User: What shape does this take?
Amino acid sequence: GALRILIAAGLLCAGCSQAPKPSTTSSPTPAAVIASASPSGEVGYAVLIEQYQAPVPETENGWPILKPLLVPPDETTPPLTERLESLDKPADLAYFDKEVLPKLKEAFAKPAFFDPHPLLSGRDPLNFHYRDLRRLCDLVAARADLLWSAGKKGEALELLRLPLGLAKAMQSRPETVSVNLFSGPSYANASLRDIADWASDNSLKGAELDQAAKLLAEYRPEYKHIIETISVDFAQFESSLDDTD
Assistant: This one.
């Protein structure tokens, strides 16, 4: 029974696609490359750049919801990750449940999570907040642990949906290798750790085992994104060479 969850968790973390073969043509510009995926799986730079830079309606983007918590309006207000280091104190737990968790549920349920910007090296405005987001996912996992210990297993598993949702939202467009490797798996691991722990001590069984299996299946990775991720680094290089700044 629990072995099914461990296998599913392993599959969620795994990626098994070959990188696209580099083009043999000489320095094509984005306009000159193919505008669609080739039979070998390669994706043209022009397509990747367009997908990366495409605007997203604010109603579908989770980042604007969390931005006020991670980017304070002034220097006198500490960011959320400094104000809330753990859930050990009752006051911190109450603050997390009342002020933070509702925002996380809203933001991490959105289909996208990024700040639109040009695909240029060093221009990603989210760079400084990836660790903050990972910390938030760890707090969610810690809250799920508390619920699990209190016997509220269904609620605990539903809470683990949040980090998995964020990881999926980060894959809503092609990404650079560094962002994909650091952010997506890190967020998902917050949930996978808890599920693996509950499976290893045999407390995950019955209805909760089925619930966990469905949860992992719902948020399994898109392997197409892995192919695009490798290619987008070259697209970023191409864009940066053409940027005079």
